[in-house]
Amino acid sequence: MKKNIIIFLIVLSIPLFAQDKNKLIVDESSGKQMLIGICDRTAFTDTNFAWWFNPEYNNYNVDSVFLKQAGHKLNDYDIIVVMGSWCSDSRREMPRLIKILDKLNYNQQKLKLICVNRKREWPEGAIENLDIKLVPTIIFYEMGMEKGRIVESPKETLEKDILKIVLL
Fold first, then answer.
1. Do 123 and 37 form a contact (C-beta atoms < 8 A)?
2. Positive or negative, the Cα torsion across 138, 71, 160, 90?
3. The CATH number of 2-166 is which of 3.40.50.1820, 1.20.1050.10, 2.40.30.20, 3.40.30.10?
4. Is the pTM of this model over 0.70?
5. pLDDT tens, residue by residue, 102-139
């Protein structure tokens, strides 16, 4: 239990030490720009990412039943997302998650977004304690304790998987 709280506090403190937010590097595999490190949603306004973020965000219909059932409860959670801007699963799930959080008026200060390279690493930050095997990984914390995660893609839908986590 103490280990989870320590890991959570370390990860939440990463932004305090991060020098560059929304940092771009060249993906050696594709030769295209990719995000690395701590990011926020403004990173997706860059033309390198808006072409996939905006259509997915705009076309996704949030489950209104979910909003009624879990909306108030989700604000009790901190969320850490580890994603790759090069990853098709991240490109699908991240805009959807952001739209869900927008519909709920979720406090964006409680959302920590970490972009990794193709090796699922962030050379400047310590994320190995998060046990990231696939991206995106969306981790939900309540009072510093991990309560659940969605790895790569939801088992049902983002809304249903989130609901199962927050109503545990």
1. no
2. negative
3. 3.40.30.10
4. yes
5. 999 999 999 999 999 999 999 887 788 999 999 999 99
